[in-house]
Each structure stands twice: as structure tokens, then as C-alpha cells.
Amino acid sequence: MTIRPARADFLDLDRGFAAVNVAVIGDVMLDRFVYGKVERISPEAPIPVLRVDRRTTMIGGAGNAARNVASLGATARLVAVVGPDAAADELRGLFDAEARISGDLAVDPEGGTIVKTRYVAQSQQLLRSDEDGTGRLSPAARAGLLAAVDAAIADAGIVLLSDYGKGVLAPDIVTAIMTRCAAAGRPVVVDPKARDLSRYRGAMVLTPNAVELAAAAGEPVDPADDHAVSRAALGLVRANGFPYLVATRGAHGVSIVGADGSAVHLPARAREVFDVSGAGDTLVAALACGLAAGGSIVDAVQYANAAAGVVVGKLGTATVTPTEVRAAVAGDAEAKSVAAGGAARHAPVFTDAAAAARLTAAWQAEGLKVGVTNGCFDLLHRGHLDVIARARAACDRLVVAVNADVSVRRLKGPTRPVQDQETRAAVLAALADVDLVLIFAEETPAGLIRAIGPDLLVKGGDYTPETVVGADVVTARGGRVMIVPILPGHSTTATVARIAAGGD
Question: Does one domain contain both 452 and 359?
């Protein structure tokens, strides 16, 4: 099939995600992460000693694809198989906490739940231990799985097969699923694991990585070579009747190859890579959402590529939100503009505290300290800059909350503000020390501080920590309050008065 050109507004796909329902079928697993520090080598053997700080547990494998579907705003129904064990109970508890995911977990009385444990120090994985199942489903598990598949397909707009090669998507089961999807008219997106891609015949698009592409093609494929990737992908597309194949090539980007021989090569979007765990889950989930929302293959892949670029910058089996995707694409545009000699793009400006909180929560999940300061910032002066600079020096990401026009009038009178809220926000967003601007109309910033839950709250003036609005919220969660003395001789009110009197 011919690949149509991409639209400039491909990000608008996420406006339709709320109406998307994805059936995710595949190998679910429990992902455990053990974080700590390495400060010495064991005297017992030449191995590092990890001093454990914290542990986290997440839904992994096909479950991570479902989590990404949900975090993008769509609804996911996961169909998978677990064992009769404590790990399965833990997975069910994690699913119960996910508002947009339902889990149909068939139990295999002869198998076990897959568990992967990763040991991480200073953002680097030291070791991974795997507890795999048997790789084969019992007759009872197979029957339970296919019954759940029937129910999930009936409600879905698109089907996502997440194959980790652990037995759920064995050839005969895939054939049964593909037959059911064809009868129901459901498009299928596959994240494959098998070398023989013919088992997925009938799928709309497959998303192998460079290693999987080479294995399926039966020949070496240089991921840096567009022509080699296109040739291998086209051979697989034509041999198996797929309309499209999307090859993920790591640092070399993503390639879309159609059955008619057309190809589009997109550059990688990741700026900084911390952890590639689950990046393929993010890409295929975003791709399925984009296609189900009515996007073309190129638009959906562009969105998915941007989403994967965000998630590799996080630690652990991570997910991504539309806000993060939009911010990342905007950041790429900024980088290109600066490289070309243009002006840098401003920090993002929000008017919705909940939306801003989703971005700040993602920063905090990466271990970054988030600070908040607030004010009217009517005529930006040296005193404002001093507070902002000191605040940013004390945290990793700074949110500046600026009073909306209606709020300024309540505080300063009917003649203020001198500049409207959009102008004041744009000026603040242009500052290098500012990472996010949030316009708020409430009388105080208490609500936004509760929503964001910052690690640091900064206020300029002669306050005490106890009298700062929101201080109780911040300190209750282990954060701190910082007071920055106002520089003498710098006041917006005094400046406005001088202007009104005809002064300089």
C-alpha cells in the first residue's frame, strides 16, 4: 500500500484517543526494579555490592503495552495468562489500580507467572534475573485465553499482539486470533518475536526491531543503512502479505515500508537515553492508538516515534502521556530552530494545573526535584529575576505560577495588570531558568501546589516559611520552603507609579 505524506499536525491524533479501545493480547509479566548505590566491590567475589534504597513493581511485557495505551488516554483490555501464584495476585492488584485497563488473566494450573527483576545503580542496570514460565500453555489455559480473546475483540477497535516469545502467542494460538480478528473486521498491530513472521499473516502492520528484522529476513541488516532496511522489510511484507512493516532502528530512527515498495525513514527523537526497557511497548501502543484514532500510517508512526523517544529518557518500565509527547516534539523544534540560528522556543505554558501536574510528575518519576514559585510578574524586573534564578539553582525543574488577569485585579486593583496574562506568561517562558509556566485564576496558589506536589516551594519577600501559602503541603511530603529576600529598590508597583507620574 502507498504511504501517504505525513501531516504537520500529527500530534492532533491524541485528541481522538479517549474514544479508542485496544485489545492487548500477549505475554504479561511482573517487572521488579531494585534501585540503589554501588560504593564498593564485594570481598567475596569481584562483583559490585548494591546498597538497596528502594524497590518498585510494575506491570511488564504485554501489560506495559496496555499501560501505555491507558496513559495516552485510550482504554485497554489485556488478555494474558498467569500462574496460580503470588506474583499473579500482585499483578491483579496492580491492574486494580489502573483506571483505564481491565485485565482478563487466564490461569494456567501447570505454569507460573513471569517475573523479571532488574538491579539498577546510578541509572545503570547491573543485573537482570528472570523467572520464566514453561513456555507452553495447558489445554485449560488455552481454552480460557481464547474465550477471553473473543470477548476482548468484540469490544475493541483495534487489536495489539505483544509477543515476548513466552508461549501465549504460539503459532496455533496466533492463527486462531487472526481468524477471529478477520471475521470481526478488526485491524491487528503486532510487536513480533518469532523469526517466522508468517504466523502473523493477516496483520496490518508489524514493528520488529533491527535484530528481529535481520533474523526474520535471514540475513545481516545494517540498521544505519536505509536501503538495506527497506530491502529486508519489503521482502517480508511481500512474502507474508502485510500492508506495512515498521522497522525500529534505535539511534537510526524508524522506517515504514509499504507493500508497493514505498518507504519513509524517520529520524530518532530521543535526546538522552537512560533505559530502553519497554520502549517497544510504548511505540506499538502509540501506533495502535494512532491508527485506531483514524491516523495514516505515517502520522501514527510519527506520534509513536515521539512517544518512544520520551520513554527511553526514563528509568524503569515507563509510560508516556500526550502532554509529554507534545512537549518533546516542541523541544525538538526548539533544538532545530537554535541550530539554524533561530530563536529558542519558550517553556510550555499551561492553564490547567492537572495537565501541568502530569508533566511535573513525570519529571519527579525520573528522580528530578521540582520547584514552584509564584507571583504576578506584571513588569519583570531584576528582583523577579533574582528570585527565579535562586529558585532554579535549588531544583532541577522550575515551575513559575503566574496570576491570571482576574487574580491580579483582585490583588492590585482595577488598573492592573499592565500586561495581560498571555504576555506575562510568554516573557517568563522565555527565561532559561524557567521550565514550565502555569497561569492560575484562583485567589491563592494553594490548589496548584496540591496538584503538583513540588519538592521545593520558593517565595520572594519577608515571609516566614510558616506563612507561605502551600508550605504545609510541601513540608508534609518531605519538601522544603525557601524564602528569597527581595532586592531593595525593585518593585513593579513603584515602577508603575513612576510611569504614571511621568518619571523615567
Answer: yes
DSSP helix/strand/coil, 53: strand
240 annotated among ligand-binding-site residues = no
CATH code assigned at 116: 3.40.1190.20
**H or E, element range at 212:** helix 210-217
pLDDT at position 20 over 50: yes
Same domain, 476 and 331: no
User: Residue 210 falls within a domain, yes or no?
Assistant: no
- Please check the confidence at residue 172 and state whether its pLDDT lies above 70: yes
Is residue 31 annotated as a catalytic residue, yes or no? no
Is 212 marked within a binding site?
Answer: yes
Pull the grid cell for residue 453: 506536589
Residue 211 is assigned to a ligand binding site: yes
pLDDT in tens, 214-248: 999 999 999 999 999 999 999 999 999 999 999 99
Beta-carbon count within 10 A of 144 CB: 19
C-alpha cell read off for 432: 532559561
**Which CA distances in Å does 119 have to 42, 127, 152?**
16, 5, 35
| This prediction's pTM | 0.67
* pLDDT(498) > 60: no
Predicted confidence (pLDDT) per residue in 24-48, tens digit? 999 999 999 898 999 899 999 999 9
As to burial, measured by CB atoms within 10 angstroms (0-12 exposed, 13-18 middle, 19+ buried), residue 352 is middle
Q: How many structural domains are present in the chain?
A: 2
pLDDT reported for residue 376 = 87
Q: Within this chain, do residues 326 and 359 fall inside the same structural domain, yes or no? A: no
All cell numbers assigned to 286: 502509540
Same domain flag for 59 and 182: yes
**Confidence at residue 491, expressed as pLDDT on a 0 to 100 scale:** 56
Catalytic residue among 163, 275, 281, 299: 281
Other CB atoms within 10 Å distance of the CB of residue 210: 19
- Domain span including residue 424: 349-500
Answer whether residue 199 is part of any domain: no
